[in-house]
Specification:
Elements (H helix, E strand, L loop, with lengths): L25 H16 L4 E3 L9 E4 L7 E20 L6 E16 L5 E7 H14 L14 E3 L10
Antiparallel strand pairs: 1-2, 2-3, 3-4, 4-5, 4-6
């Protein structure tokens, strides 16, 4: 497999709504394998095809101690609850920010065999799913910032809130 080049903001591919996958063929299978290798090489939790310059609705997610989840043409079925999270992105390196994400989420997608799957997730897994689906819609986590004060360089710690 191959390590693909990551696209960084403000690359226009990151702002385009990705196209649906029409057929799961060897090209799509190769893309998925390369995306998994690229995600692991960059110590990511997830990766969406636009992040490697491919405008297709494909994403991969791998949480610690969990198998890789491949999502083709994913759609959000349900979101519940909201929580403040700290988030970063391989396509916006060197920063992290505080945003609001769903506590729980249900996604419907195709797997590599073309079968419809439902993925139910909470906490970090829900956050990763929302983050990658945002990429497929041309949205970056920085678009969810309440204000620029919620974005800070990785070298610094987030501002402490008074009790």
């Amino acid at each position: 497999m191959s390590i693909l080049s990551l696209r960084h903001y403000p690359d226009p591919v990151l702002r385009r709504k990705a196209q649906p996958v029409r057929q799961i063929d060897p090209t799509v299978r190769r893309l998925v394998a390369d995306m998994v290798d690229t995600m692991r090489h960059n110590s990511g939790v997830g990766l969406a095809a636009p992040q490697v310059g491919v405008s297709l609705r494909v994403a991969v997610i791998e949480l610690p101690e969990e198998p890789v989840i491949v999502l083709i043409n994913p759609q959000v079925v349900k979101r519940r609850g909201w929580r403040q999270v700290e988030e970063g992105c391989l396509s916006y390196p060197g920063y992290r920010g505080e945003i609001t994400r769903a506590e729980k989420i249900v996604i419907k997608a195709l797997n590599l065999d073309g079968e419809t799957i439902r993925v139910k997730a909470e906490d970090l897994a829900a956050q990763a799913l929302e983050h990658e689906l945002d990429h497929l819609n041309g949205v970056l986590y920085i678009d969810h910032l309440e204000n620029q004060d919620k974005l800070y360089p990785l070298e610094t710690e987030p501002p402490q809130q008074a009790d």
